[in-house]
Amino acid sequence: EAQVTQNPRYLITVTGKKLTVTCSQNMNHEYMSWYRQDPGLGLRQIYYSMNVEVTDKGDVPEGYKVSRKEKRNFPLILESPSPNQTSLYFCASRFGTGSYNEQFFGPGTRLTVL
Amino acid sequence: AQKVTQAQTEISVVEKEDVTLDCVYETRDTTYYLFWYKQPPSGELVFLIRRNSFDEQNEISGRYSWNFQKSTSSFNFTITASQVVDSAVYFCALSEAAGGFKTIFGAGTRLFVKA
Lengths: 114, 115
Hints:
A: mainly beta; 4-stranded antiparallel beta sheet; 11 strands; 50% strand; B: mainly beta
């Protein structure tokens, strides 16, 4: 089954404790992206990647890191989480490098930083 | 700069009513793509439709229809004869062809359809 998977689905952590949210897709998509969803703000793009070893900032990259060492994986790293990073996070992928294709989303990761 | 505005935060209708969700966008690019996604209460995001800037033809898919008007920079979504299963948050999104590969989402419209 074609899908985007994220782990963990739920995470409660404390300020400053490094964490990684994994994202993997099995559709051989070139493009992958991370978003955060907050009430009243919709989805905001954190980082995206056009292909292996090619990443770029979205609109809200502060406090996050990403890497793309393999085509299928795109982990989101929070080196020192803070309470304002409490949010619902979505990973997405899409075919090709053009902007015209729709994105396929993972199930979401709900992160709480205390 | 890109911007997507969904001015309706929440809409509540009774089953079988028609409802229109508004989406207004801003872009300087002449080639761009507009999308609608649905987020049901279960939380996943589901693609509904894509429209490119050169195709102003309206589209109908069952009870769903989309009206794209470049003159008013709008890409509105109408559900005819709404059903309880249509209850969800609906997001409009914009991607530009040039100058990067960002996607901008609107804030979303939460639709409640009451039986």
